[in-house]
Amino acid sequence: MSSADPGPARPRRRRRRLLLAALAALLVGALVTTVLLVLERREAAPGRTGGEPGLGDPYFPRAGNSGYDVDRYTIDLDLGAGDGSLTGTTTFVARATQDLAWFWFDLALDVRAVQVDGAAAAVSRDGATDVRVQPVRPVPVGAEFSVRVEYAGTPAAVEVDGASPVHQRGAEWSVFGEPEASAWWFPADDHPSDPALVDVSVRVPAGVEAVSVGRLASRDTGDEADFDTWHWVAGQPMATYLAFVSVGPYRLEEGVQDGRSTVYAVSEQLTGRQQRAALDRLRTSGATVRVLETMFGPYPFTELGGVVPSAPLEFGALETQTRPVYDARAITDADFAPELLAHELAHQWFGDQVTLRAWDDVVNSEGWASWVAWAVVERTGGPSAAAAFERTYAAARSDRRIWSVDLTDPGRDHLFDAVYTRGPLALQALRTLIGDEAFFGLARDWTSRPATRSFEEWQVQAQAATAVDLGPYFAAWYQAPTAPEPSPALGFP
Length: 493
What we know:
Distance between the termini: 29 Å
InterPro entries: Aminopeptidase_N-like_N_sf, Peptidase_M1, Peptidase_M1_aminopeptidases, Peptidase_M1_dom, Peptidase_M4/M1_CTD_sf
Family: Belongs to the peptidase M1 family.
Number of strands: 22
Strand content: 15-25%
EC number: 3.4.11.2
CATH class of the domain at 32-160 and 184-237: Mainly Beta
CATH topology of the domain at 32-160 and 184-237: Immunoglobulin-like
CATH superfamily of the domain at 32-160 and 184-237: tricorn interacting facor f3 domain
Keywords: Hydrolase, Metal-binding, Metalloprotease, Protease, Zinc
Strand order of the largest sheet: 5-4-8-2-1-11-14-13
Cofactor: Zn(2+)
Largest sheet: 8 strands, mixed
Structural class: alpha+beta
């Protein structure tokens, strides 16, 4: 994700994480209804175990679900009513990581029916998004199983903690957001630590476009005169928050760049001038990717694109996989757009190919994407990343809001407050400290294969790439409550 504003000891973190998890568990216990408690006590007989609602993420403890890993989602949506409501059928295939007499998934819409391996299952709900499923037969550890969910609702009418990832303007309707959005349009294990394949079909009135992630496999089945079904297929696994759907009057431009299929979509609700400016900028995506490949190796996916809805966003863009979503004002800003495009396309390596183990690892994603925006300018003949470092450090040095945030444990309410400034400063300092050969080799190794990784893993891998003791560097740039004093030992030129 990009900010709409283009301006400027891990052991302690683990103790905080354990405390947060313990507090979250107590709160969950207090909120569960008496009926459900009685039911679970009865089912907790010897030999019966089940999953938990939530993975214990330090900032979003109820996000995701324990007990299984999802392999793929097949999502069928019907938005034919044209009023923002949907009916859906999603089937997900998963593998049990423990015996499951019951398990949970995340969905904010009304559940009509659930089948597990073809048999009807009992369903109950706890809170806004947690749905509990009890199959007829428990799923044994190691077994692959399928879950078919029928559901319906109006996503825009659902808010959780006063927030919604639904973006609407006129005839246009979209669902995307960070950290949680999938529960508003499909049932999921909604946490970045469980990437999966995604296949999306969307039925809409004829003449309306439906855009999603991956490859456009087809756009009209031909079965209905008044409706079209758009089918999108992602060839590589993705975290659930990296999936999106957008429906409305879009101008689509399809093509092939460097052997990969491209789809750019710009809302026709924008002015003609805005549409042209947005498309002109999106068309530079291929050239930007080629620059990134010189630093990090091959682009990790088989599709490339971008989407520009007309609804104003609270952020500059979101790194939805293969097809980032851009705010129309930001992508048509001639000064800001090149940086924005580089940031979101960098996320395809940092955040999408290698996604977060937990939400307190967000610096692994946003820090890198922000630094890459500097590096692209450097590699295309502009000022160096070292010059950007000096300028940014001078502007931010006395800003307590930036240095008061520990990047290794920013807290739920401050996830994005400092990372866009402190993150790239830290990486440029590392580059200076260990040299280009080690720095870019480290970056290529980090992104060479799909993975979910933590900041602790980054620290270990970075230290393994150099003989320089990086302990003082990590303490100063990521955790210290004040700006580092200029010193070659901390990566200052």
